[in-house]
Each structure stands twice: as structure tokens, then as C-alpha cells.
Design a protein that fits this description.
The protein is of the alpha/beta class. The protein has 2 domains: 10-184, Dihydroxyacetone kinase, domain 1 (Rossmann fold), CATH 3.40.50.10440; 186-321, 2-Layer Sandwich (Hypothetical Protein Tm841, Chain: A,domain 3), CATH 3.30.1180.20. It has helices at residues 13-24, 85-94, 109-124, 155-167, 172-184, 233-247, 268-284, 315-321; strands at residues 29-32, 36-39, 49-56, 67-68, 73-79, 101-106, 129-134, 186-194, 212-215, 227-229, 255-262, 288-295, 304-313, 325-327, 330-332. A 6-stranded mixed sheet has the order 1-2-5-3-6-7, with helices on both faces. A 6-stranded mixed sheet has the order 10-9-8-13-11-12. The radius of gyration is 19 Å and the shape is globular.
Length: 333
């Protein structure tokens, strides 16, 4: 079946979407040097800056989380592709400050390659920057080596707590410590029902039969833990939560955050039904859902499915999640 999308020249997708995005929310974001989305109202240079990178096509991630209390800049690559290191360094240069920069990278091969190269170049220029790698996907196994565990939607709560810590004036070491605390106590598992098409080529990124689902599939169609027949919402939620909750080091007596992140074609109706079952399962294990997000935060075009994210919280992390923020896709007043 032919791809049906409202686009123009496929080669211009990224610049056109970024121009449109920043034009729609000029009070919150601005476009700098083609592919760098920055806060429209920069924070004081005495405070740590937060920067991330990633490919376009996952909207609202990642640029939807640029704003007060969250990211200072998002460096955008082409569809499903990392930006080049020179563009990343350009953003780091724009945000150079004595307070330093926290650089958040999701564990995907291209992102890590660009991130590592940018770190080398930035250090040669004397830019004070620390990099943290998100790797919370448990599809390869909760105990799999970090290099085998992808970064999924968990980057977004990490932006929130790190951004709030930076906004509060904490040092780079303190901001890094907060980011590392949630990074070490979060887990995500994805499930796919229906493929997405690559909007530049129209190619399907994977194939699934109408009666199949796949738990563990990655954001770009990377293989999961195996295909199965379709399960009900409750069966799917319990099967996934039973793996994700312990992988987040959480259990009886703990407070947790839950995010049900729609992949692009899964309705809010379905997401709320999944959240209901997830919350019920967590409470049956003696834990408490203290913070929740349900909606589309990191999508894959029109992929059907969702990501289930759980993080163990302490009082500090909960306070940071509830701190004020004013990004387009996450606002707390």
C-alpha cells in the first residue's frame, strides 16, 4: 500500500518540520543554525545547561522537551538518524559556561558515535561538559551489558529531573548525580502491533501479521524478544509490568513513576486501559504509583504499540518531577 502523508519534498522533511515547530511555539523555542532547537528565553549562565541529540521523526521527542525546567537545546538529525558531531559541538559551544553542560545521549549506535566525537571535540575547546547515556530498554534482559540496552522514552523523565536540578542552581556534579540516580533505577519495555513507514522512502520498517504482536521491539524496528499472538490489554500490561517493575529495582513499599508512551498509532483509549492494568499490577505488588504520564512523548510515525516505563522514586526525584517546567510537551505550573 502506498504511503499517505502530508509532506512535500522528502529531502526537506526535517528543516520544514523544525521551522513549523518553532514558528508554532515562538514563546518557548527558537531554531538556531538549521537543526538546533533552543529555549526562546535562555536560563542564566550561572546554571548548568542540559543538551540532547537525536533523529527527527519521533515527535514530540526530543525537541518538545526544550524549555524552562528541562532541556536548553536539542540537536536534531534527519529522520531516524543522529546529527553529525560538528552540529552537536556547535550547540555545546553556544551553551558554553563555567557552570557546565550535561549532555544526554540515548544508546543507539549513531547517537553514541556522534556523542563521543562531540565530547572529544568539546574537550579540546575547553567546554565543561559531562555525558550521560540512557540505556533502560530491558528487551535484551535486565542484566544485559549496557552497550546492548537501547535508550528509549526514559530519556524524557531524565530530562525533567536533571532540568529541574539545573534550574534550582545545583552544580554539574549534583545535576549529573540526580540524572544518574533515575538512570540507574528506570526500565522500559516496548511492544509493537503495526509497522511504521519511513516518511522519506515510504518503506515499512518491519513486518507483523495482523494477529501478531512483538514485545521488546525497538524504536526503529529492531528485533524484540519474539513474536506472539495478540494478547488482551490486561494480559499485555501484566506480562510487561512483571518484567519492568523489578528491572527498575522497585517492589513492595516503593514509590514509582509510570509512563505509558504511545508509539504513534495507539489511541489514548488503549493507553488508558493499559495504564489501568499496569497500576493495578504494581499495587498488587505492594508498590505505589506516585507519578504518571500517559500519552505520546516519543513516537515512531504511525507505529502501533507503546512503551511501558517504570522508575523507582525517592523524595528528591519526586520533587524534581513536580518542579515547574514550561516545555511544549511537558508543562508543570
Amino acid at each position: 500500500m502506498a504511503m499517505k502523508k502530508f509532506i512535500n519534498n522528502p529531502d526537506n522533511l526535517t528543516p520544514e518540520l523544525l521551522e513549523g515547530y518553532c514558528a508554532a511555539f515562538p514563546q518557548k523555542v527558537k531554531l538556531v543554525s538549521d537543526k538546533i532547537v533552543m529555549r526562546a528565553n535562555p536560563k542564566d549562565e550561572s546554571k548548568v545547561a542540559i543538551v540532547t541529540l537525536g533523529g527527527a521523526g519521533h515527535e514530540p521527542a526530543l525537541s518538545g522537551f526544550v524549555g524552562e525546567g528541562m532541556l536548553d537545546a536539542s540537536v536534531v538529525g534527519d529522520i531516524f538518524a543522529a546529527p553529525g558531531a560538528p552540529k552537536v559541538v556547535e550547540a555545546l559551544r553556544l551553551l558554553k559556561r563555567d557552570a557546565g553542560i550535561l549532555f544526554v545521549v540515548l544508546n543507539h549506535e549513531g547517537d553514541v558515535m556522534s556523542g563521543n566525537m562531540a565530547m572529544e571535540m568539546a574537550k579540546e575547546e575547553g567546554i565543561n561538559v559531562r555525558m550521560i547515556l540512557t540505556h533502560e530498554d530491558i528487551a535484551p534482559g535486565a542484566d544485559a551489558p549496557i552497550e546492548n540496552r537501547r535508550g528509549l522514552a526514559g530519556c524524557i523523565p531524565l530530562y525533567k529531573v536533571a532540568g529541574a536540578a539545573a534550574e534550582a542552581g545545583k552544580s554539574l556534579d549534583e545535576v549529573y548525580a540526580v540524572a544518574e540516580k533515575i538512570n540507574d533505577n528506570m526500565a522500559t519495555l516496548a511492544v509493537a502491533l503495526k509497522t511504521a513507514t519511513h516518511p522519506q522512502s515510504g518503506d515499512a520498517i518491519f513486518d507483523l501479521a495482523d494477529n501478531e504482536m512483538e514485545i521488546g521491539m525497538g524504536q526503529h524496528g529492531e528485533a524484540g524478544t519474539g513474536r506472539s499472538d495478540m494478547l488482551t490489554a490486561d494480559e499485555t500490561a501484566v506480562k510487561m509490568a512483571a518484567q519492568v517493575l523489578p528491572a527498575a529495582n522497585a517492589g513492595s513499599g516503593d514509590k514509582v513513576m509510570v509512563m505509558i508512551n504511545g508509539a504513534g498509532a495507539t489511541t489514548l483509549m488503549e493507553q488508558f486501559i493499559i495504564f489501568r492494568a499496569t497500576k493495578n499490577y504494581i499495587e498488587s505488588q505492594g508498590a505505589t504509583v506516585a507519578h504518571a504520564l500517559v500519552g505520546e512523548y516519543l513516537t515512531v510515525q504511525e507505529m502501533g504499540g507503546f512503551q511501558m516505563f517504570i522508575a523507582k522514586l525517592d523524595d528528591e526525584l519526586l520533587d524534581l518531577l513536580n518542579a515547574p517546567a514550561d516545555a511544549v510537551s511537558w508543562t508543570v505550573r
